[in-house]
Design goal:
This protein has four helices and 29 strands. The chain has about 425 residues and is mainly β. The strands form seven sheets. Strands 1, 2, 3, 4, 7, 8, 9, 15, 16, 20, 21, 22 and 23 form a 13-stranded mixed β-sheet that branches. Strands 24-27-28-29 form a four-stranded antiparallel β-sheet, with no helix packed on it. A three-stranded mixed β-sheet has the order 11-14-13.
């Protein structure tokens, strides 16, 4: 239970020399937030350049230092926000010297960095996310998320935050659990939305308020399924799936590779319409601060137009005003799809395989020129792990007899 009158916070800084400083008395305008489209939690506060054991705080609290916010709420206490200082803005006057401090948790590097990734069709969500994090030296401490077999993933020079978000979004669209990646006291976790065991309730009194907005600004009412062909030829439309076109035509494209089944692409199109095919309902809930609430948590609200259980899409805590602001969405329980990883025969350089026929390309990179090649026996001469492999057409084949003329780079799934 939260005792609002007993809510308070301590701000602790761990210096480069591993000294723990309680700087609460020098801090004003403390707040922290988790926004919908960002991986990392942001912490911000103003710090007066006071003296601490004979030294100015500006000589102790430096870029990269750890900041922890410890919350107290009567019946409990704990670290509710933690990160590293990213920015310090110095403001001076005749009477005061104040530093505006901004910190982010340890997902900030992923949020700001770009990378190239490739995963063959059939990899499960957990396997993909674990591999991405491992490549950055990060261990996933716990996983309570979707178990969905994904389509082939090929991304080049894309923000890791967007890649991770897209992986989780695809899993949700295919029927998996809705989940987020978040950090708790430096431990990285994939958390199923609404899985919190303690659910806080906001009732309609003078301390709470709510607003509700309906919008079709981001609606999707038509999805076209196209097949991936050469970059210099027109895309072939395989199917068109319409939704609520009475709101107008707002179109999205789904690309089907040769190895994908059309029914799976249509299923994805329908899932997009299920997800984005109706007016967007956005609700905001403001009330007394509840320190432990995180993005992705389930809350109960009976305030104005809100009545029932809601998921927190974003959360802003304001310690100065003692208020919490949340963007929330109605919680609708759904049955979850759980899949096994699609295993396929492994191949290596030197293997003789049966090329099924189709395109072979002059390079492994997307956009490479492709030509038709006949089916037949061929030898694998280069694979996905070769140096500078572009990933779009990851295997290099050379025919072994005259039945086939394949001599170039081919797609995953075009041989067996």
């Amino acid at each position: 239970m939260i005792e609002i009158s007993k809510v308070s916070y301590d701000v602790i800084v761990v210096t480069e020399k591993n000294l723990q400083l309680n700087i609460t008395q020098a801090v004003e305008d403390l707040g922290w937030e988790e926004n919908e489209d960002e991986l990392a939690m942001k912490i911000n506060f103003d710090m007066y350049n006071a003296t601490y054991n004979g030294s100015l705080l500006s000589s102790l609290v430096k870029l990269g230092a750890i900041v922890a916010v410890k919350g107290h709420w009567g019946s409990g206490s704990g670290i509710v926000a933690m990160g590293n200082i990213i920015e310090c803005t110095r403001k001076s006057s005749k009477s005061d010297e104040v530093f505006e401090v901004v910190a982010y948790d340890n997902l900030y590097n992923l949020q700001k960095s770009s990378d190239c990734v490739y995963f063959a069709k059939g990899k499960l969500t957990q396997s993909i996310l674990t591999s991405i994090l491992k490549s950055w030296g990060i261990t996933l401490s716990s996983y309570n998320g979707p178990k969905i077999a994904h389509s082939k993933i090929l991304e080049k020079n894309k923000r890791l935050g967007y890649i991770i978000r897209d992986v989780l979004d695809e899993a949700k669209k295919k029927g998996g659990a809705a989940a987020i990646l978040r950090s708790t006291e430096t431990k990285i976790q994939v958390v199923k939305k609404g899985s919190n065991t303690t659910i806080y309730a906001f009732q309609g009194d003078s301390s709470t308020e709510a607003s509700h907005k309906s919008s079709i600004a981001n609606i999707v009412t038509r999805v076209k399924v196209i097949s991936s062909e050469d970059s210099d030829s027109a895309a072939k439309v395989e199917a068109t799936v319409d939704g609520k076109t009475e709101y107008g035509v707002f179109q999205k494209i789904v690309t089907k590779s040769k190895s994908d089944d059309l029914s799976e692409a249509k299923k994805e199109a329908n899932e997009i319409l299920d997800e984005d095919g109706s007016p967007e309902e956005t609700s905001r809930l403001i009330g007394p601060d509840v320190p432990p609430i995180r993005k992705g948590d389930l809350v109960y609200a009976k305030v104005g137009a809100l009545n029932g259980f809601y998921l927190a899409k974003s959360v802003q805590h304001n310690a100065k005003s003692g208020r919490i602001t949340m963007e929330v969405e109605k919680y609708v329980p759904k049955a979850e799809v759980v899949e096994e990883e699609q295993t396929s025969k492994s191949y290596k350089v030197g293997d003789i395989v049966n090329f099924k026929g189709g395109k072979h390309y002059v390079s492994s990179y997307a956009g490479a020129k492709g030509y038709n090649a006949r089916a037949g026996k061929a030898r694998i001469t280069l694979g996905p792990d070769c140096k500078a492999n572009g990933g779009a057409h990851p295997w290099h084949l050379i025919h072994t007899d005259s039945s086939s003329n394949v001599y170039g780079w081919v797609d995953e799934g075009t041989f067996e």
